[in-house]
Design brief:
about 450 residues, alpha/beta, FAD/NAD(P)-binding domain, 4-stranded parallel beta sheet, about 25% strand, binds flavin-adenine dinucleotide
Length: about 450
Amino acid sequence: MRPQVLIIGCGFGGLEAARALRTTDVDITLVDKTNHHLFQPLLYQVATAGLSAPSIAAPIRHLFRGQRNVTTLMGEIVAIDATARTATLKDGATLRWDHLIVAAGATHSYFGRDDWAEHAPGLKTLSDAFEIRRRVLLAFEAAEREANGEDDPAQRAALLQFVVVGGGPTGVELAGTFAEIARHTLPGEFRRIDPRQARVLLVEGSPRVLQAMPESLSERAREQLGALGVDVRLNARVTGIDAEGLDITTPTGPERLHSRCVVWAAGVAASPLGRALADATGCTLDRAGRVVVEPDLSVKGQANIQVIGDLAAAQSHAPGQPPKPVPGVSPGAKQMGRHAAANIQRRLRGEATQAFRYRDYGNLATIGRHSAVVDLGTPAGSLRFSGLPAWLFWLFAHVYFLIGFRNRFVVLVDWAWAYWTHDRNARVVAGAGLSEASPARDAQACPRRRAG
Ligand SMILES: Cc1cc2nc3c(=O)[nH]c(=O)nc-3n(C[C@H](O)[C@H](O)[C@H](O)COP(=O)(O)OP(=O)(O)OC[C@H]3O[C@@H](n4cnc5c(N)ncnc54)[C@H](O)[C@@H]3O)c2cc1C
């Protein structure tokens, strides 16, 4: 029997690890609870109707059709037994492993207020993106219905007020694109409302957006958001979210924001599989639930288990420098995936494993149709730029890293079309109309008509 490698999760980390073991004499089982690898950096484009799902997701089975040492299974791992070297799927089936790579990623954190999730969906999966898209588009539909003879301006204003919580890259991207939809995509398509009257607010708890970027680029991002018509509220902490809107506290006092479409882009928590691994091995978790790993990415006392990507609280070990935390970004996950595979190869050869070193190539974030900020690490120092050149750089970097030629081609064509026409052509909301899609919200949106 060849050594059995089990990889849990086919995101950026798991995919890269499996690929790096292409020519290694092992049998790999790649398990994911979905049937697709998802390019999360463009998920906001699906949520804002700019791209359709297949443009940014690829069936895992198809990706590995030519790699004979990979078996792809769809299922959710719920427990790990480090002594018996097995992993248990939700249906009770078990999978044996000699080497385990856990790459289950992260999920949303509502900072202990999980009841907010129902009113403010986060963006992590395709289902999340569909739900956000549905809420945004149906808010405009409901506002058009509300704006009849017995018009209630307050209801309509709440329907046309969109709030994004969290000023990181995802929040900034979402807020900028919502503003563009309202100002450029939808005008001319409605008869009773003017979509340009929609308000988009970005609520951020700290003094600036894009905290991971240098201060000058945060300021440029804030200016570019302002130019798009986004109302950026800094130092504003959310204290409550319900079906009618949210409560925030700002330096000037508490404020109520009426909104029927709130999106959560504020907190990240590790996959619950981190807790399962801690129960199985006694390993330490950090405050976000990430597994604290050894320098070589293994779990303390478990040389055959490695944790990578967003689920790992890992440090970069560059020679002659103090260890630095690895950020939760796709290059980090991909590099860890390749490193974990190389460590398995080393162990199979009877060699010692090596410490992980992260190579940071920089940070990018897009703000709208032709605005972005870029902070690149170069041998000569930091290279920072913003505006149209940054947007073009962002665009080509994302197309380059997309999986599959067809996806790259389709995304380029869709973006070129959207650039010239302002159109966003993935605006189909499947199935239900307003009432069926969200009866509770619809009832709130149109109480008099419903009662009558
Ligand atoms: C909206 C959004 C935008 C982002 N934008 C950027 C960006 O612009 N640039 C950037 O560098 N990074 C970005 N990131 C972060 C980046 O996507 C992550 O750092 C990266 O995906 C982490 O890779 P991973 O392999 O650890 O986890 P993931 O890519 O999240 O993959 C985890 C996989 O594990 C599977 N899984 C989870 N639990 C189980 C289980 N119990 N059993 C089986 N399978 C399981 C999931 O289905 C998933 O396929 C963004 C993230 C999001 C959510």
